[in-house]
Amino acid sequence: MKILHTADIHVDSPLRGLSSAGDAPVDELRGATRLAVENLVDLAVREAVDCVVVAGDLYDSDRDDYDTAVFLHRQFARLAESGAVVVVAYGNHDAASEITRRLRPPQGVHVLATGAPQTITFDDLGLAVHGQGYATRAVVEDLAAAYPAPVPGMANVGVLHTALDGRPGHHPYAPCTVEGLVARGYGYWALGHVHQRDHIERDGRHIVFPGNLQGRHARETGPKGATLVAFDGEQVASVLHQPLDVVRWVRVSVDAGGAPDVDGVCARVVDAVAASEEVVDGMLCALRVVLGGETEAADRLVAEQEQWVTQLRADLAGSSGRRWLEKVELHVRRPDRTGVVASDAVQAVRDLVAAAAGDPDLQAELARTLDPLRTRLGADAGALDALGGTGLVPGGIARLLPAVEALLLAELGGA
Predict the structure, then answer these.
(1) Among 340, 307, 329, 306, which Cα is nearest to 409's?
(2) Residue limits of CATH 3.60.21.10 in the chain
């Protein structure tokens, strides 16, 4: 028996941050969530999946576009024709959606109750699905704590839209713990809400976030898709991630350290993109390049950014145009030369003081030069008095030189 676990589909989610990118493939990006759903259904049909489990966020908040619902109904009908059943637990975005409030689900789609946990059994499959959807957008109690006991002799799957024990960047909805989920006794937990894939296994129990079906912006990087789960009776036999995205968001970090000029930096970016395992030939890849390190070209990279970024866009796109440079984050800096300057300056002071030891006139000149530092030399300022015409007192140089060196290094940033 096979199930296909998906979550956080966000069909027709509006794209953010593209208004300033004149070369953005907007139409392709906007259609990506729908194409990913079609890929999901294609996979379910091809693998003869028995059940598709959706762990929340079919829709995207309060969007009131019924064309979105018609599209999903059509895809669910394809699943029904293939013999697969669908179980949905509404998430926080579904609870805020006008579509879920006004339209009944299509035939073959089972929506889990929102008022209390529910178990749906499929005797012909030997499958029991337990879960509860969101009645309101913000659910702050541990829903899983009230989920029913597993059904003996069946494969038991729990469905929940949750932040689990807390995940950065996600609202802490339906909080629960790994230990609490394992204790329910289900073989597989189909979770949603967290857009990054995660698979936790404890004592033969599998707790899985499949991640969202299609990345929607530069923070949702890497392969996105769904999880194909095979059961051998009551036990989970395999858990496989299946990439289904049609646009891949990729973050590439490049060290410009030591690059002599702008062309050299750009060449490094092109090479880094080519070497990235997440950049797939034939797939539209939206690239966020993070450029850092020390380079002699730092000033030009900042001053001429528009020019070289435009050239870089063209170099990366190539003849296929399947690599789109979404943005460059520029964190380069000029090489730090204060250490070298400080070292040279300190040596010059040492040479001058050594020469003054046997030359009263040079001692007087040195005293006049250093006199403005008297208040900053503190206790060592007394050594200056010995430089004025009467010669150095024993140990005067030894007292004066370290203090002057320390001041010099601090001023030049080399300390």
Answers:
(1) 340
(2) 2-243
pLDDT number for residue 394: 43
B/e letters for 366-380, b = 16+ CB within 10 Å, e = fewer, are: bbeebeeeeeebeeb
Cα 359 → chain centroid: 66
Residue with tokens 């990439």: 243
* Order of strands across the sheet that contains 235-243: 109-111, 85-88, 51-54, 2-6, 225-232, 235-243
| C-alpha to C-alpha distance for 346 and 350, rounded to whole angstroms | 6
Q: Please check whether residue 78 is in contact with residue 37, taking contact to mean a CB–CB distance below 8 angstroms.
A: no
In the prediction, which pLDDT does 75 show? 95
Q: What is the pLDDT of residues 224-258, one digit of tens each?
A: 999 999 999 999 999 999 999 999 999 999 999 99
Kind plus residue range of the DSSP H or E element containing 160: strand 155-161
- Beta pairing class for 51-54 and 85-88: parallel
The pLDDT value given to residue 319: 63
Q: Which residues contact 387 (CB under 8 A, 6 or more apart)?
A: 356, 363, 364, 366, 367, 370, 396
Q: What is the CATH number of domain 2-243?
A: 3.60.21.10
The string of pLDDT tens digits covering residues 148-186 is 999 999 999 999 999 998 777 677 888 999 999 999 999
Residues of the chain short of pLDDT 70, as ranges, are: 15-22, 61-64, 96-103, 169, 319-321, 336-350, 352-353, 356-358, 363, 366-415
Judge contact between 279 and 318, C-beta under 8 A: no
Question: Left (φ > 0), alpha (ψ -120 to 50) or beta: where does 229 sit?
Answer: beta
Q: What residue type is assigned to position 352 of the chain?
A: L
Structure tokens at 282: 């034939």
Which two tokens mark 323?
Answer: 């690599």
What gap in Å lies between CA 1 and CA 70, rounded to an integer? 29
Q: What local confidence, expressed as pLDDT, does residue 411 receive? A: 52
Please name which of 169, 102, 171 lies closest in space to residue 137, comparing C-alpha atoms.
Answer: 171
- CA-nearest of 196, 166, 159 to 181 is 159
Residue 60: what pLDDT? 79
Question: CA torsion angle for 302, 307, 309, 315 (degrees, to 10)?
Answer: -140
The pair of structure tokens assigned to 54 is 């959706």
